[in-house]
Automatic annotation (TrEMBL):
Protein name: Signal recognition particle receptor subunit beta
Highest taxon listed in the record's lineage: Eukaryota
A Gene Ontology term for the protein's cellular component: endoplasmic reticulum membrane
InterPro entries: P-loop_NTPase (IPR027417), SRP_receptor_beta_su (IPR019009)
GO MF annotations in UniProt: GTP binding
Membrane-related topology note: Single-pass membrane protein
Family the UniProt entry places it in: Belongs to the SRP receptor beta subunit family.
TM ranges: 20-40
C-alpha cells in the first residue's frame, strides 16, 4: 500500500502546477534537441569532406581526368575502343561538376584503379570539383579560391543527398595541355599562363587575408602537364620553365600597365613596401626578383609542383597525380 501511496503522491506533485515542475519540464524540452545534436554530430565525423579543385584552360582534359578517376577500371584496359570512348567523349563544360572519390591512406598502395574497389576503412573520402575552362566561365573556379570562408559549398551529384555539402578546399590541380604549349603560334602558352596567373594571385590574396584561426588554410597547387602521350607534348620540366617565363612576362606587363595608368612609380614602390599595399596590387610572387619562379609562391605558403601525365593513350597515366592528391587530402 505504501508504494502505491508514494506513487500517487509523486504523480499528484508532478501534475500540480508548481515552479519546480515547470522548470524541470522546460529544461527537458530545451536540452533534448541539444543533446540529440551532440549525439548525431559525433556519429558523423566526415560531415565536411576535403575537396580538390580541377582548373585549367578549355580542352586541357579536366573532364576527361574526372571521368578517368570516376570509372578507373574502364581506362585500365584501353584496348577496346568503346571503353576508351567513355573517357574520351567529353564536351566543353559549362557548369562545375563534383564527384565523390576515396583515396587509400596507405601511400604505397595509392592507385586510382585499386582504390575504387577497395574503398574501405583505410580510405579517405574527398570531392573532386571539375570547373569549366572557358574564359567567360572561369568565375566559378576563382570564386572558390577567393571565398573568405574556410569552407566552400559544393553540390555533390553522385552522393545520395542532393543538398549542398560544406567542403574544405585542400588542393588545386591546374591541368595544362602540354602538346598545345609546344606550338608557339597557337597562343596556348599566353592564355594558359594568364589563367594560371589569376589562380596563383587569388591564392596569394587568400594568404594575405589570413588572420585569426578561422582563416582558410593554404592550398597546394599541382600543375599537371597532360597529354604526354602525344609526341609533340613538352616534358614536365619544359612546361615548368615555359610557364615560369611567361608568368614573369605577364607580371612585368601588368605592373607596367599599372604605371601607365597614372599610378606613379612611387606609389607602386610604396605599395610594394607596405604590408597593406601588397594586397591591393596584382604583383605575383616575391618583390625584387626579375624572373618569376614557382618557388616564390612558398612565401605565401603556396607549394607548386609540376608533374607530367596523360589521361588517354600510352604513357605514365595519371598515377602520379592520384598519389599527389592522396598525400594532400
Ligand atoms: N591525346 C590525349 N588527349 C586527351 C588527353 N586528355 C584529354 N584529352 C582530350 O582532350 C579533349 C578535351 O578534354 P576535356 O576533358 O573535355 O577538356 P576540359 O578541360 O574539360 O575542357 P573544358 O570543359 O572546356 O574546360 C578531349 O577530346 C579529350 O579526349 C590525353 O591525355 N591525351
Ligand atoms: Mg570540361
Amino acid at each position: 500500500m505504501t508504494a502505491t501511496d508514494t506513487l500517487k503522491a509523486l504523480l499528484e506533485a508532478a501534475l500540480t502546477p508548481s515552479p519546480t515542475v515547470i522548470s524541470i519540464g522546460l529544461a527537458i524540452v530545451l536540452l533534448f534537441p541539444i543533446i540529440l545534436h551532440f549525439i548525431f554530430s559525433a556519429a558523423t565525423p566526415y560531415a565536411t569532406l576535403p575537396s580538390v579543385l580541377l582548373v585549367g584552360p578549355s580542352g586541357a582534359g579536366k573532364t576527361a581526368l574526372l571521368t578517368l578517376f570516376e570509372r578507373g577500371p574502364f581506362a585500365a584496359n584501353p584496348g577496346s575502343p568503346e571503353k576508351l570512348d567513355a573517357v574520351a567523349k567529353t564536351h566543353t563544360s559549362q557548369v562545375p561538376a563534383t564527384i565523390e572519390l576515396a583515396v587509400s591512406t596507405d601511400p604505397s598502395a595509392a592507385s586510382y584503379r585499386a582504390d575504387l574497389d577497395a574503398a574501405g576503412a583505410t580510405a579517405k573520402k574527398f570531392l573532386l570539383v571539375d570547373t569549366p575552362g572557358h574564359p567567360k566561365l572561369r568565375g566559378h573556379a576563382l570564386a572558390h579560391l577567393s571565398s573568405t570562408a574556410p569552407t566552400v559549398p559544393t553540390n555533390t551529384s553522385s552522393s545520395s543527398s542532393s543538398s549542398p555539402t560544406q567542403s574544405k578546399l585542400k588542393a588545386l590541380i591546374f591541368l595544362v595541355d602540354s602538346a598545345a604549349l609546344s606550338d608557339p603560334d597557337s597562343g596556348a602558352l599566353a592564355s594558359t599562363a594568364s589563367y594560371l596567373y589569376d589562380v596563383l594571385l587569388a591564392l596569394q590574396l587568400r594568404f594575405h587575408r589570413r588572420s585569426g584561426s578561422r582563416a582558410p588554410a593554404s592550398v597546394p597547387v599541382l600543375v599537371a602537364a597532360n597529354k604526354t602521350d602525344l609526341f609533340t607534348a613538352l616534358p614536365a620540366a619544359l612546361v615548368r620553365s615555359q610557364l615560369e617565363a611567361e608568368l614573369g612576362r605577364i607580371r612585368k606587363s601588368r605592373s607596367k600597365g599599372l604605371l601607365d595608368s597614372g599610378v606613379g612609380a612611387d606609389d607602386v614602390d610604396a605599395a610594394a613596401g607596405g604590408a597593406g599595399g601588397e594586397e591591393a596590387d596584382g604583383w605575383l610572387g616575391g618583390y625584387g626578383t626579375e624572373k618569376f619562379s614557382f618557388k616564390e609562391m612558398m612565401e605565401f605558403d603556396v607549394e607548386v609542383e609540376v608533374l607530367g601525365g596523360n589521361v588517354l593513350g600510352e604513357g605514365p597515366g595519371a598515377e602520379k597525380w592520384w598519389k599527389w592528391i592522396g598525400e594532400r587530402v
